[in-house]
Amino acid sequence: MSAAPSLDRQPEAETGVTPLASTAPALDVDDAVKAFTSSGALFRRMWRRGERKRVVAVDHVSLSVAKGEIFGILGPNGTGKSTLIRLISTLLIPDSGRITVFGLDVVKDEAAVKRLINRVSVEASFFKKLSPMENLMYGARLYRVEAGEARQRILEILRRLGIEERSIWTPMEDMSRGMQQKVAIARAFLTSPMLLLLDEPTTGLDPHSKREVQAFVREIRERHNATVLLTTHDMQEADELCDRIAIVDRGRIVALDTPEALKRSVTTADSPAPTLEDVFLQLTGKKFEEAEEVPK
Question: How much is the pTM?
Answer without folding.
Answer: 0.81
